[in-house]
Give the backbone structure.
Amino acid sequence: MTWILVFFPALLAGLIQGLTGFGAVIIMMIFFPSILPMAQAAGIGGIIMLLSEISLVIHYRQAIKFKRVLPAFIVYAAVATWSVHLGLILNTHILRIMLGALLIALCIYFLSSKSAGSRHYPWYVALFFMMISGFFNGLFGIGGPLMALYFLSLSKSMPEYIGNVQIFFLIDGFYITSVRIASGILGTQIIPYVLVGMVAAIIGTIIAARLSARWDLATVKPWIYRFIGLAGLYYLIF
């Protein structure tokens, strides 16, 4: 039963991330805390997706724009490094409710406003997205939804969006994993979970790559917004 709770969520996570650009750890964190401590569950989820992210980065490498990715990552990582340790002293349940309410509000806004998805955010809104995403990534391993919105607002095509958001998450995955290892949160005992999960995630990513080749960004955007709303609903309930 334990391995089913690793393999199936990781398979679904690879499929979701390959189609929407984010959401893998959200899916895995529905299941993993039932078999692992919260901090370890978040860390394992991030490691499992590394191979899938590498494959997506290679596939969309020509569309990647590092000038957009690196400044965003510096802000995001600075906040995530600080917040990794806060889960021990903060009321994380209240924080999850706040994040859930924010994501649902954003989902409603983007689905109801036809022009919202094509706007470029002012620098202070983009900075807010980076900081909030980094904060919740350090706590729960979940920083994707707002960063997905940020990159989505700057992208003109599906390859550009997927390429940029995946290289961002790949860099973040290596960095925040090293922080968790240095902090003693992750050790060698997680290796079997990671290997099983990686195999499943790669299968899901391959399926997603074949499906997404038929879609353009305009088709995918509403589904990305809906998934952000579902993520917010999950945070409110669990």
In short: The two ends are 22 Å apart (CA to CA). Residues 53 and 169 are 7 Å apart (CA to CA).
